Amino acid sequence: MKLTGSFTLNILKHMKSALIIIDREGDILVLNDSAGKILRLDSETEYSGKKSREVLSTYPRLLELFRISFEMHTLPDRAELEIINAHTGDRKTIGYTLSPVFDDESNRLATAMFFKDLTAVEQEETKERIQDRLVALGMMAAWLAHEIRNPLASIKVNAGLLHKGEKDGQKMQLSDEILSEVKKLDRIITQTLDFVKQKPINLQECNINEIITDSVKKNLHSYHSIDVWYAFSEIGTVMLDAHQIDQALGNIINNSYEAMPDGGTLTISTGLTPSNAGDYVPEEVSKHVVRDEMNIQIVIEDTGAGIAEEVLDKIFTPFFTTKSGGSGLGMSLTQKIVSDHWGFVDVTSKLGVGTKFIVVLPLYRVKN
Ligand SMILES: Nc1ncnc2c1ncn2[C@@H]1O[C@H](COP(=O)(O)OP(=O)(O)O)[C@@H](O)[C@H]1O
Ligand SMILES: [Mg+2]
Question: Which residues line ligand 1 (CB under 6 A)?
């Protein structure tokens, strides 16, 4: 594919915002001056018409992002990405928005990425001040959590005792509901704490299918009639932060559960999909892991209420919630955890039909 119209091209080339447009075949249509500057590419070269795999070979995460964008239904808006130059180890944080490019027949031709370099902003003193505040907020949240958790634990124990000694179905359901509300409060506390804490990821050997089945057990409560179907592929031992991935997937599963108050079906599949990132491994984990040239794909699909199109791209925004008593932190935490694992989250949904989350993670194996 080729872009025409020298007037438009000129505007795109010289505009202040960094812009890269890549088509389905991986050919670069536009890579403007600002983009070249941020990525430290040679400013004399003309990049349109060149293969992105060659020009951007030192930025595997960017290549991966573009490739995956053609499979995504909800493209990231105002997201952040840390890109690392695979040769020099140079790090940059970029803020970006992806937009689809269509032809007259609504065929998806290309993906446009508008971005800016946030590294400079990050280094500013203001960032430090925000960091200080986050630390204070973290301490406050921890204190509050402690004060709430103890009484909560005793409510939980007592409701459990009531449930045990009870034969009356209606009373059993009531105590069940107390337990489920307690779990909800507990989740809000955990999510708030995790949100302010910023835990680093700690890769360990684990089995993704087991993490999923455990997470389902933890998040589906007994008195709802939800059928769970698994379609697992044998993926073997992978390197992930089991605790954090459990949380990330648990937040999705819990939302599915809450979206099906009258019951429904939850289908979870795991599998491998091709990756564009080759055997690239970020330096901080390269001592412990090697990369299989594939991605792990986890699909979690429910037959619940669905999400209105207007809010679909807001669900990852912190504090966005449509529930009374919701924290609005679940999906933003999920996105953060997955992104810390160098992966991506996508979502599609239809009101009244259901919602499908797709989590893509790089396939890391233990290095022997
Ligand atoms: N599976 C789902 N079905 C329907 N709506 C969903 C689903 N997952 C997320 N949402 C929507 O995204 C919003 C944000 O989710 P989340 O960040 O987990 O916060 P919370 O669950 O506390 O509201 C929810 O309030 C809901 O509107
Ligand atoms: Mg939630």
Answer: 251, 255-256, 259, 302, 304-307, 315, 320-323, 326-332, 355
